[in-house]
Amino acid sequence: MHEVSLIESVISLVEQERAKQAFARVNMIRLQVGALGCVEPEALRFCFEAVTTGTIAEGSRLEIEMVTGEGWCADCRGTVPLDERFGACPLCAGSHVRMTGGDALRLAEMEVE
Amino acid sequence: MCAVCGCGTARLATDRAGPGAEHDHPHPHDAGHDPDHDHVHGHSHAREAPHSHAGDALDFGAGLAGVSVAGLSQARTISIERDILAKNNGFADANRSLLIKAGVFALNLLSSPGSGKTSLLVRTITDLRDRWPIAVIEGDQQTSNDAERIRQTGAQAVQINTGKGCHLDAHMVGHALEQLSLPPGGLLFIENVGNLVCPAAFDLGEACKVVVLSVTEGEDKPLKYPDMFVAADLMLLNKADLLPHLDFDVDACLAAALRVNPRLQILTVSARTGAGLGAFFAWIEGRAAMASSPMAGGS
Q1: Mean predicted confidence (pLDDT) in A86-108
Q2: CA B42: distance to chain centroid?
């Protein structure tokens, strides 16, 4: 359940933001989750309400934006979409693909008032 | 538990405080954790790496750009663009620069429970203690059993109990490092919580990650739990002495591991008989030499 500590990190980032600019509540938190990363969006949703209760983010809505995976195919010499970290190139079916993106986990934006 | 750090429940048990002694995690803040708490507790591992827990100015990526008014309310949208693991990574960077400065080569050992990590460490320490000063940080949810086993070899050991936590994070390891004294040229093993999922995401500041898989597990484990094998630099296939009694397909296992991570190095070993451990020790020696060479940066 490392998703719990990840949501706690999100709350910590929100708190850091509140120290910079005043806001009373958070309506929405948008996360970017890489499809090839080691985070399960459903598990984030599952623990979000419980972990945010009693914090500045209590009652806020969680929006998860999935970021698709991409890789560099050495044979096609180009960037290709990847469904799995160790997947084959969707263009040439070759296996000389190195993942280049899609494993990030970011707090992208939030709506506050 | 505070964000990433887990310090509401984690406990350190050292070998300094007398037999079997455990003490509470030395943070002054209470476990209840006021949400306003900004992580300003007196902390000595700030060192030189950028540290993210001061709660004050940190580079903000794209900055506070998009401010828009939605509907009739005072609601506004703040663009943040922050890596959620940045806090852990800040602690990890601090640990890494501390270890490099101290000339200590650190390995993070990962596996499911029962793969033989502790037995492997006991054997490794026994065989290598005349060549290297060795210390161990042990991570488990409960008990100091593993640290006790390590101490019986004569090596220093610090036990971290994560409570409900499923992984070690860099903040816990930073505190454990404060308890250890290793001379330059020392070797540090960090035995992570037995878990083939969560520890993969948390950099602890180690030089390399070593995943241990035993032949009593399925040969498709690397495909079922790819994150761990993707993150690892070396895989040890342990309990090889049991192979004659099992249907385990070594080739299929190695193929699965290399499919997930083509750069993975793999050694087949038995902590019980010592078979293959010479190659592991040679790997440690080589990687430690690379890490300490001025030509090579930390990996």
Answers
A1: 88
A2: 23
pLDDT band at B194 (very low <50, low <70, confident <90, very high): very high
Cβ atoms of A51 and A18 closer than 8 Å: no
> Which H or E run contains A9?
helix A2-20
Q: In what order do the strands lie in the sheet with B134-140?
A: B23-24, B11-13, B156-161, B134-140, B187-191, B105-110, B208-214, B234-238, B265-268
List the structure tokens of B200: 């993969």
Structure tokens at B265: 């190095």
d(CA B228, CA A7): 21
Check pLDDT > 50 for residue B298: no
Burial of B18 (0-12, 13-18, 19+ CB in 10 A): exposed
**Residue environment code for B171-187, b if the CB has 16+ CB neighbours within 10 A, otherwise e:** bbbbbbbebbebeeebb
Residue A49's H or E segment, with its range, is: helix A41-52
Q: Does B167 touch chain A (CB under 8 A)?
A: yes
* pTM above threshold 0.95: no
Residues 240-259 of B with CB under 8 A from A: 259
CB contact under 8 A, B83 and A16: no
Chain A residues with beta carbon closer than 8 angstroms to that of B87? 9, 12-13
Return the closest-CA partner of residue A49 out of A11, A105, A13: A11
Lowest mean pLDDT segment, chosen from A39-53, A57-71, B111-125: A39-53
B67 touches chain A (CB under 8 A): no
ipTM passes above 0.85: no
Contact (CB, 8 A) for B212 and B115:
yes
Rounded to whole angstroms, the maximal C-alpha distance in chain A is: 53
Q: Which amino acid is at A99?
A: M
Residue B97 has pLDDT above 90, yes or no: yes
d(CA B197, CA B40): 30
Task: Flag if B200 and A107 touch (Cβ within 8 Å).
Answer: no
Average pLDDT over residues B166-191: 93
